[in-house]
Amino acid sequence: MIVMGISKILSSIIFGGSAVCISCGRKLRRERFSMIDGSVGICSECFKTLKFTKRGSSFAADGPITYLLSPLEYNGAAENILRAFKFRSDFKNGDIINTIIKEFLEGYPQLHAFDRIIPVPLSEERLNERGYNQSELIAIGISEALSVPVDTDTLIRIRNTVRQSSLPAMERAENVKGAFLAQGKLSGERIILVDDIYTTGSTMKNCAKALIEIDAAEIVGFSAATKIRKESPLLI
Ligand SMILES: [Zn+2]
User: Distance from the CA of 30 to the center of ligand 1, in angstroms?
Assistant: First the structure.
């Protein structure tokens, strides 16, 4: 279902000239691509490496997170697209991710009942350096699909941390411990906590703990892609 939908969106093929694959960077004739907006595309070989997770399933998550939803596995083209979005300000890639997420969310109508969408915050220093928070842009896409508001005020990062991806799994938990603070009250609210990638879960777990401290009733995790392997049926 999801793949069919995405193919439909990506299939306005334009003939003639050449284009660059957003994932592998190869320049190919446009007819070999699935094009987006007539200017960028993903080649058929990279498209094949996009691994969509099973619809109607969730992933086990750590700490107070009830479960994790994630449309993509973090490897192949998904890894390339998310890296370009995160580190090279490639917003076209962000659009692609949000297109995939919006289709995915059609299978989870129960999320409309949630109260807020909270993205994992960056430190002020990192935000100034990068100019945007990729998780916030993903959260905005989710908000458009679910009509649930995005909240970027409640959860803040109180200290800068070493980039999680640069650390071995064992050190990641320590790196983000106590890095987040939640302000105000979320009395009985249900929260969708958003990050771009879920790997060890340390970041989201620490964010969720902070939200529980100000009385959030339930936290569901959402990441564009995940490395978690343990898939479980969605029991709602
Ligand atoms: Zn490619």
Answer: 12
| 28-82 pLDDT, tens digit each | 776 666 655 556 678 888 888 888 888 778 888 888 999 999 999 999 899 999 9
Query: How far does the centroid of ligand 1 lie from the alpha carbon of residue 191, in Å?
Result: 36
CA pair distance 212, 151, nearest whole angstrom: 15
Going from the Cα of 52 to the center of ligand 1, the distance in angstroms, rounded, reads 17
For the chain, the structural domain boundaries read 1-48, 50-233
Whole-angstrom Cα distance, residue 121 to residue 157? Answer: 6
High-pLDDT (> 90) share of the chain, %: 46
Summarised one tens digit per residue, pLDDT across range 180-214 is 999 999 999 999 999 999 988 999 999 999 999 99
Report the predicted TM-score, pTM, of the whole model to 2 decimal places. Answer: 0.86
In angstroms, what is the span from residue 21 Cα to ligand 1's centroid? 5
- 150: CA distance to ligand 1 center in Å? 33
Q: How far is the CA of 48 from the centre of ligand 1 (A)?
A: 9
Ligand 1 center to 148 CA (angstroms): 34
3-state secondary structure 113-153: HCCEEEECCCCHHHHHHHCCCHHHHHHHHHHHHHCCCECCC
CATH code assigned to 50-233 = 3.40.50.2020
- Biggest distance spanned by C-alpha atoms of the chain: 57
- CA 35 to centroid of ligand 1, rounded, Å: 12
